[in-house]
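Q: I'm a student working through a structural biology exercise. My instructor gave each of us a protein and asked us to get a predicted structure, then write a short paragraph describing it. Mine is Dihydrofolate reductase family protein. I'm not confident about reading structure output yet, so if you can add a plain explanation after the tokens, that would really help. Here is the sequence I was given:
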Amino acid sequence: MGTVVMYNVVSVDGFIADEQDRPGHLFDWYFNGDVPLDESGQMTVSQTSYDYTRPYWDRVGVTIVGRHVFDLTNGWDGKPPGGVDHVVVVTHRPEPDGWNPEGAYHFVDGVEAAMAKAQELAGDRVVEVAAGDVGGQVLAAGLVDEVRMDVVPVVFGSGKRYFGSIDTQHLLDDPDVVTQGDRVLHLRYRVRR
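A: Happy to help. First, here is the predicted structure for Dihydrofolate reductase family protein. I'll explain a few features afterward.
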């Protein structure tokens, strides 16, 4: 089974979007460098951020997201983001009309079912869980091995929380990676069991 990583870009005060689901300045670091992060060449980051981010992205086999994120992005127009092979969508609603059941998107009910499907699809590759409500549910279920966050120097004051509405304490180990990019701090923590 692959490592399960909860990930997102986050403000210093712990938000992944504002109240209207807008990322504000959170993604600025994706465009402030001179090293292309993907094949499109649209995202360009510092060499330091590339050296941290690209190898991680290359290890991700499946991303788990909630239906809200899927709807906001329009399912990334049918093409999983970041070169990921599969996206597992946690939803209590039926899949949208026109989605190929044999394609890269898989619609399941509940985080345990999502994790089972994601692990089946990922094999020994990383299962990435988008931070937010679904990520918080997966963490609360004890299914997260690692927390990765790209902390951007902006304060939102309110919005969508990195850990969602989680209401119990979870201990993380000290960060085993702290990498300073240009206008972003990359952090990685192991989850204590």
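A: Here are two points you could use in your paragraph. Residues 180 and 186 are 6 Å apart (CA to CA). The radius of gyration is 16 Å. It's a good idea to check both against the output above yourself.
Q: Great, thank you!
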